[in-house]
């Protein structure tokens, strides 16, 4: 995962959390209302000791039991009112937090969809998963609960301190003086806790990545008997996270110690001084009762400050992690004024194209180092080269999965960067060797690129891809496949992925070795049917087998980042030693020749 863009402690908590404002705006009225209701609840709680003072200094001192019942009734009514207000506060904050969480999650998902493949190359999926799930959960809990109670508790403590000073300024000031060491400690707590919270959330993401990887790779792990090894790695990561969680708990325990010990000590001192004041007649017993009853009301808000402060810092870290994704640079975006060109004939031109991956060492030459190639409208061009020569990379440049670093790719004379992305990707359809299906029905998977395609088009695409096996699935086209659905074989998946590209009815088909998992007979059938489509569609096909090359009108040879020969298969066989070398490697796939070997 790339380093966070903002060092944790360098950015203030308020500044970070206030970045959530656009997502929280609609929820703010209810959050403010919850704060007001809570402040009133606190005021009600603080009023009870005043009634007690009146009772002790009045009816009790006078020995008149009559008004005591009135006072008890008032205390009871205040208690009930406080409970009702607390219930109202809960009702007010329950739904807005969930709305904000949903809004943040949708924005994050949209962003993840928009960010270029280069971003996803660098970010482990678990880090994204933990941001989308646990971080947003932390933000929701803080908004619905932590924020309101933190603000209300601070206001309650300030209000309570004013009442304590008003009741007895000497005792009140002793109480207020006790806040100084607590505030000082809070600063060091913030620094310490922010760091450990960040580590904990990052380690949660790493753990999610490990789970995701081992679940995805479960067959490999089992086949190689590496389950124990994977478990060991996981255990050590889990242990690391456990250690961090303990560090977090210790930091919270530290501030709780301050928050319980110091007020208790302050009240101890107040008790001694208060008794002396009362015994010397400088204070009434009712005043003392009210003072300590008010102090007791303040104890919970004081103790809970540590918890809510920790919650706020967790939310700050979660917000930082959320915005690391939202702020990630996206260069593959729609042009400001997309070219409005009607569908053309499907000419595909690579014009002196250069490309290098972001993390490629500076001393390495460009992976695609000046490719110039024209695929004529309706022509089928096979792309051949040693493994690792950059064939897949070159095909990825056509739909802007990556952007060229030099030169241009043009469709019907228009630079692909001048077309709206949706437009470009409806003109060019791709099928990859790694056929990815989603946990949806066969129909939805095949119609991913053109959901409004007719039943006839869908059937035709399935026929061309020789995917009639779908009719034997339990619910036919409505059978759920993919990760959570029925498992299909590699060849079946590839055929569905090919059908998906065909059903999209593109101007240009880009096929990255889409038949590699098929048996020879099925491959021959697919190829025969594919010829019909290829007769009218421009196609660029990465070929690893002679039979795929046979589909093509011409073949382009990719060598050392350049197209070094273009011609028919027999022309290249006759003229290019490197082509003969590459073709000869097709026949011995178990020992594939690589670009490195060639160089
Ligand atoms: N996302 C990436 N980030 C960095 N390097 C990459 C990335 N994808 C591929 N590469 C590197 O680029 C080179 C070309 O890869 P590419 O997949 O384009 O080759 P290929 O010719 O299609 O290979 P094959 O025939 O084995 O499929 C390889 O050395 C590979 O390691």
How does the major sheet shape up? 6 strands, mixed
Number of separate structural domains? 2
Q: Considering DSSP H and I runs of 4 or more, what fraction of the residues is helical?
A: 55-70%
Could you tell me how far the N terminus lies from the C terminus, measured between alpha carbons in angstroms?
32 Å
Task: Give the DSSP E fraction (strand runs of 2 or more residues).
Answer: 5-15%
Helix count? 21
Write the CATH homologous superfamily of the largest domain: ABC transporter type 1, transmembrane domain
Bound molecules: adenosine-5'-triphosphate
**In CATH terms, what is the architecture of the largest domain?**
Up-down Bundle
Question: Strand order within the widest sheet?
Answer: 6-7-8-3-9-10
Look at the structure and give the CATH class of the largest domain.
Answer: Mainly Alpha
Query: How much is the average pLDDT?
Result: 87
Low-confidence stretches: 3-8, 588-593
The chain-level structural class is alpha/beta
Radius of gyration: 35 Å
Characterization of the model:
It is a single chain. Helix content is 62%, strand content 9%. The chain is of the alpha/beta class and 599 residues long. The chain folds into 2 domains: 16-326, ABC transporter type 1, transmembrane domain (ABC transporter transmembrane region fold), CATH 1.20.1560.10; 348-598, Rossmann fold (3-Layer(aba) Sandwich), CATH 3.40.50. The strands form 2 sheets. Strands 6-7-8-3-9-10 form a 6-stranded mixed beta sheet. A 4-stranded antiparallel beta sheet has the order 2-1-4-5, with no helix packed on it. A hairpin with a 2-residue loop joins strand 9 and strand 10. Helix 7 packs antiparallel against helix 10. The longest helix has 53 residues, at 227-279. The protein is elongated. The two termini are 32 Å apart. The protein binds adenosine-5'-triphosphate (ATP). Adenosine-5'-triphosphate is lined by residues 121, 357, 359, 367, 385, 387-393. Adenosine-5'-triphosphate (ATP) binds at residues 121, 357, 359, 367, 385, 387-393. Its main location: membrane.
